[in-house]
Design a protein that fits this description.
The chain is mainly alpha-helical. The protein has five helices and two strands, in the order ααββααα.
């Protein structure tokens, strides 16, 4: 009887390793799927470096409230709040924490993706 129990125990030890290995592989696959899905959902499909370089070259590095014009209005869309955002000298004076940004960034936020497609 003791020998039969020992044989059964030894056969289960190998099964435990197989089950443990299965769950390790399953956890790794789940982690891989989660990270790839998270990366796909959070990263942009287009490279914005072309449009950002174009805006820096054409507009410069002045803030919205430092422009030479009396009034400047740049309409952009904020994806986080799902609302339009209006960048102007007035709003930059009212709420500098949000609206005091570079004009090239504000105009880049108002454009679709012209730097991605060839003219």
């Amino acid at each position: 009887m003791l020998i039969a129990r020992e044989a059964r125990y030894r056969s289960r030890v190998n099964l435990r390793y197989v089950v443990m290995l299965f769950f390790i592989i399953l956890g790794w696959v789940k982690c891989l799927i989660f990270t790839s899905t998270y990366t796909f959902m959070t990263n942009s499909l287009y490279d914005r470096s072309a449009i950002e370089n174009l805006m820096k070259d054409m507009i410069g590095s002045k803030n919205v409230d430092e422009t030479l014009a009396d009034e400047l209005l740049v309409v952009a869309f904020d994806y986080n709040s799902q609302k339009p955002r209006f960048f102007s000298k007035y709003f930059a004076k009212q709420d500098p924490g949000i609206y005091k940004i570079k004009t090239s960034i504000a105009t880049g936020g108002s454009s679709a993706a012209p730097g991605f497609f060839q003219p």
